[in-house]
């Protein structure tokens, strides 16, 4: 974590020295000296961080001191930038009534003098901290840490793993997993040895499951050689080879000691070459570790197998991409309860749980969120207690602490995944500490905040958004974050974090001044915020708690985020103006009034607020030159956004509003780097502005009149990077077909049209629809069957026809049409009477929704031939329709009986 902070400071100092080279004369040498000192910190921190993981208190203290001085240096730099920005505004006449030498607007010399003094203080502290490395024997720390070792070095021995806390007898719901894995291991393989990987977060029972498979009698009989090795995060090649050799009884101790590393590898390799073997590699962390292991495994074609357990999905894919990793999931509610009872109740049967304890017991188990390790530890704690409601309630109150800090210290097991992250991804994980327990997290919004915080840097031709998406996927692959929902393009739409990992993030974040959560019932209101970078407010009354913090302690804040339903005082944001260094403000809740002085927060990069009806956005917002993301929710003002929005120019990347207009006209270079433009009303700006926004990836325009059709069509033809397009005209206005035939939209993947369409264009190589993944048509009033044309789209996976998108009576899915379609929605198609499906149409369809199509008589006969269908939802349909779907005796029952998930809700037609 400290390494990330220091890297940010090094970057800021470097930029400052380049950009302000003329203004900084007189203090430039001091700044360069400080820059050099922090570069040395940066070089040393990698090894020191590794030592902290090993419990070295001297290294921990030293790293904390480095982090704190880095925070102070960052404050000095950002405050200087604020002062010099204000100085230049005054000098250029922005405050004509103020003298440049007045107390509130100091002169250049005063600014430089103050900067020099502050740099001197920080520099002296930095030099002292550097000297402490030798003074307290920290110089050699990390010299043999795992991160600094070559593939042939390590500090920890490789050994048999200790018996896991989740014992074999305790495994609940794993019987089917064992059968599946046994079948995979016994399967014949025509190529080299196959690698089957069990992937999941720490504490899921990967090792326990692997041991059950390893000890299976069929497995013992099938493989001539068996070996199980545990890979610590640090290991030596020699010990790995010796571990395998010992279990295979290849050589005796004397010969092993006399053999070189290469001789040992050759001995093991030759022994396995003649036999069908099974090698289990338990708890492997890196791809490099696998590359070292596979050197001793012969690639003979005899059905040999390797079984891996890992928290990192990338390692599994690297080992063998032919076989998908086996993802071990969290336990369900009943499985969790059964496992708990096996540990907590002497009879080890859930039906023997005393009735008066079941309610409180289930509440305790829910705290574990399906993690077997936590459930077993909790069960052991309950077993040691008297079986009374009083004792269990006492345990319930302390369950979070017991799981985190108790003698079993589950947090240490989970923390391994965090400590193993690259330094630049640690702040991304800690950021999850701000979210309320069990909340669904908007992935796109999360990544935009990462970017605003400075955690993400563009790489080569990748945008910061693309890098952020890679980081989030990496956290998922490392089993630290769970995916809740993906969008049509396969990207993460919503995610969540396990409660115990959330506890880990909160404690790490609080302990490093990274973030502090303040709740309505928080008993920590008197805690100082000194050096805390981010304040998170949970609950409607949390502002009142936050007001207890001294003003001086809030000046280092970079982020203020509010999770609640409403802000009691709409003028509360005025408090934020005193926090000059803020980069992120997120105040989604009841509508507020943005203060006129919002433009003073020149460091602001992310602003998300809900503005009340007829409460104009102040024109000073145009002064936020560093703003990257502007999200204004619930904006109903008839005055629209001020024309000063166009002044934001190159830094603004995402502008999202709630059906708002923008005054004025864009300049030639306005918003040239804008990637998202959403919720903006069509207006005169379309004629001069849209075509210049060539970096747009996502575009949503509403209130489109017919008069804007040509300008819109011409502009869209120039937006070559567009991926998602959403055009809303409504029931009256018609969108010209030319919009759908622009020839440059090779990247367009998602299209939503809410407008009348005269007709649908023929699918051709020039049509922008060719590469679509998802298409939604709404209020289109098409008279010709759109399925005939749309069935030719080879890449289409999701099709939604809503609210009279089609006003004819009959639709047909032609033979072999929709080759990739996975989801089909018919919603409020009031004229549709008959739907036909011809042979081999929609061969990959998985989900079908029929909703409020009141004249549709029955499901098509061709539905029987779609064997891929997994889910059918029928809602708002007449009784005559739903009666045909009655179990066993309905006329259409044979068409749907094999569909696993069938949800039919009758209507009152």
Question: How is this structure best described in words?
Answer:
- It is a single chain.
- The chain has 909 residues and is α/β, with parallel strands linked by helices.
- Among the domains are: 2-145, no CATH class; 168-327, Rossmann fold; 333-409; 421-493; 781-909.
- The protein contains 27 helices and 27 strands.
- The strands form 4 sheets. The chain has a 17-stranded parallel beta sheet.
- Strand 3 (277-282), helix 11 and strand 4 (305-310) form a beta-alpha-beta unit.
- Helix 13 packs across helix 14 (355-366) and helix 19 packs across helix 20.
- The longest helix has 35 residues, at 57-91.
- It is globular and about 85 Å long.
- Residues 94-103 and 142-169 have low confidence and may be disordered.
Keywords:
909 residues, 17-stranded parallel sheet, alpha/beta, Rossmann fold
Topology:
Elements: H1 2-19, H2 28-53, H3 57-91, H4 108-135, H5 175-186, E1 194-199, H6 206-214, H7 217-222, E2 225-230, H8 237-248, H9 253-258, H10 261-273, E3 277-282, H11 287-293, E4 305-310, H12 313-319, E5 326-327, H13 333-344, H14 355-366, H15 372-383, H16 389-405, H17 410-419, H18 426-430, E6 441-442, H19 443-453, H20 464-477, E7 482-486, E8 492-496, H21 499-511, E9 516-519, E10 534-538, H22 542-546, E11 559-563, E12 584-592, E13 606-611, E14 629-633, E15 654-660, E16 676-681, H23 685-688, E17 698-702, H24 709-716, E18 724-735, E19 750-757, E20 774-778, H25 786-790, E21 798-802, E22 810-813, E23 823-827, E24 834-837, E25 847-851, E26 871-877, H26 879-883, H27 893-896, E27 901-906
Parallel strand pairs: 1-4, 1-5, 2-3, 3-4, 9-10, 10-11, 11-12, 12-13, 13-14, 14-15, 15-16, 16-17, 17-18, 18-19, 19-20, 20-21, 21-23, 22-24, 23-25, 25-26, 26-27
Antiparallel strand pairs: 6-8, 7-8
Helix pairs in contact: 1-2, 1-3, 2-3, 2-4, 3-4, 5-6, 8-10, 13-14, 13-15, 14-16, 15-16, 17-21, 19-20
GO biological process, one term: innate immune response-activating signaling pathway
GO molecular function, one term: ADP binding
Protein name: Probable disease resistance protein RF45
């Amino acid at each position: 974590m400290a390494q990330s902070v220091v890297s940010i400071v090094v970057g800021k100092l470097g930029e400052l020295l380049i950009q302000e080279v003329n203004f900084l004369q007189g203090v430039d040498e001091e700044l360069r000296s400080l820059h050099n000192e922090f570069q040395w910190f940066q070089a040393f921190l990698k090894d020191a961080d590794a030592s902290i993981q090993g419990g070295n208190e001297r290294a921990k203290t030293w790293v904390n001191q480095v982090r704190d001085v880095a925070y102070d240096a960052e404050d000095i730099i950002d405050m200087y930038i604020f002062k010099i920005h204000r100085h230049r505004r005054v000098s250029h006449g922005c405050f004509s009534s103020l003298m440049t030498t007045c107390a509130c607007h100091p002169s250049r010399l005063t600014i430089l003098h103050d900067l020099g003094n502050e740099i001197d203080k920080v520099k002296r502290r930095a030099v002292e901290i550097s000297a402490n490395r030798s003074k307290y024997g920290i110089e050699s720390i990390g010299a043999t840490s795992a991160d600094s070792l070559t593939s042939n070095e390590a500090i920890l021995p490789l050994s048999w793993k200790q018996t896991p806390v989740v014992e074999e007898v305790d495994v609940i719901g794993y019987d089917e997993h064992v059968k599946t894995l046994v079948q995979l291991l016994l399967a014949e393989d025509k190529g080299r040895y196959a690698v089957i990987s069990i992937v999941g977060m720490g504490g899921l029972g990967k090792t326990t499951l692997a041991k059950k498979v390893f000890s299976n009698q069929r497995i013992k009989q099938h493989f001539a050689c068996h070996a199980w090795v545990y890979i610590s995060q640090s290991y030596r090649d020699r010990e790995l080879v010796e571990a395998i050799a010992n279990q295979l009884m290849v050589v005796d101790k004397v010969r092993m000691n006399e053999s070189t590393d290469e001789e040992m590898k050759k001995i093991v390799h030759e022994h396995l070459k003649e036999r069908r073997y099974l090698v289990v590699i338990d708890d492997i962390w890196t791809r490099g570790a696998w590359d070292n292991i596979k050197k001793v495994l012969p690639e003979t074609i005899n059905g040999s197998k390797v079984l891996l357990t890992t928290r990192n999905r990338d390692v599994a894919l690297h080992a063998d991409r032919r076989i998908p990793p086996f993802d071990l999931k969290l336990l369900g509610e009943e499985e969790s309860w059964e496992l708990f009872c096996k540990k907590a109740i002497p009879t080890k049967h859930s039906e023997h749980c005393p009735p008066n304890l079941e309610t409180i017991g289930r509440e305790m188990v829910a705290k574990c969120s399906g993690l077997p390790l936590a459930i077993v530890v909790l069960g052991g704690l309950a077993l040691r207690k008297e079986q009374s409601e009083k004792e269990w309630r006492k345990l319930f109150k302390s369950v979070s602490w017991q799981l985190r800090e108790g003698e079993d210290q589950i947090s240490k097991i989970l923390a391994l995944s965090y400590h193993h992250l690259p330094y630049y991804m640690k702040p991304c994980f800690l950021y999850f500490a701000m979210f309320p327990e069990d909340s669904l997290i908007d992935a796109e919004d999360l990544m935009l905040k990462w970017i605003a915080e400075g955690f993400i840097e563009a790489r080569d031709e990748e945008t910061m958004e693309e890098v952020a998406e890679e980081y989030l996927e990496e956290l998922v692959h490392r089993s630290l974050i769970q995916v809740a929902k993906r969008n049509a393009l396969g990207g993460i739409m919503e995610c969540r974090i396990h409660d115990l990992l959330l506890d880990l993030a909160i404690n790490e974040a609080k302990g490093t001044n990274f973030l502090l959560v303040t709740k309505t019932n928080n008993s920590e209101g008197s805690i100082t915020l000194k050096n805390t970078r981010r304040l998170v407010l949970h609950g409607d009354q949390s502002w009142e708690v936050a007001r207890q913090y001294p003003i001086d302690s809030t000046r280092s804040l970079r982020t203020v985020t509010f999770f609640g339903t409403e802000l009691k005082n709409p003028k509360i944001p005025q408090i934020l103006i005193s926090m000059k260094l803020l980069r992120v403000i997120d105040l989604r809740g009841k509508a507020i009034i943005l203060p006129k002085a919002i433009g003073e927060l020149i460091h602001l990069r992310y602003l998300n607020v809900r503005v009340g009806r007829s409460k104009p956005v102040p024109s000073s917002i145009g002064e936020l030159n560093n703003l990257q993301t502007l999200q204004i929710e619930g904006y109903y003002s008839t005055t629209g956004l001020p024309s000063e929005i166009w002044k934001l120019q190159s830094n603004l990347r995402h502008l999202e509003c709630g059906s708002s207009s923008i005054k004025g006209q864009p300049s030639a270079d306005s918003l040239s780097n804008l990637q998202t433009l959403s919720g903006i009303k069509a207006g005169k700006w379309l004629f001069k502005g849209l075509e210049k926004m060539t970096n747009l990836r996502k575009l949503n325009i509403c209130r489109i009149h017919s008069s804007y059709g040509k300008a819109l069509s011409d502009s869209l033809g120039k937006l070559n990077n567009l991926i998602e397009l959403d055009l809303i005209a409504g029931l009256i206005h018609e969108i010209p077909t030319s919009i759908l035939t622009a020839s440059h939209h090779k990247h367009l993947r998602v299209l939503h049209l809410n407008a009348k369409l005269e007709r649908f264009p023929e699918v051709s190589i020039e049509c922008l629809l060719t590469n679509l993944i998802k298409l939604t048509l709404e209020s289109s009033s098409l008279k010709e069957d759109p399925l005939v044309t749309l069935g030719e789209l080879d890449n289409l996976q999701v099709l939604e026809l809503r609210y009279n998108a089609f006003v004819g009576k009959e639709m047909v899915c032609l033979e072999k049409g929709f080759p990739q379609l996975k989801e089909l929605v018919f919603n409020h198609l009031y004229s549709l009477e008959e739907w036909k499906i011809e042979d081999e149409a929609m061969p990959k369809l998985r989900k079908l929704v029929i909703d409020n199509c009141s004249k549709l008589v029955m499901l098509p006969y061709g539905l029987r031939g779609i064997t891929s269908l997994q889910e059918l939802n029928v809602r708002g349909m007449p009784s005559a329709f739903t009666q045909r779907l009655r179990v066993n005796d309905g006329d259409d029952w044979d068409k749907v009986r094999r569909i696993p998930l069938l949800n039919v809700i009758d209507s009152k037609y």
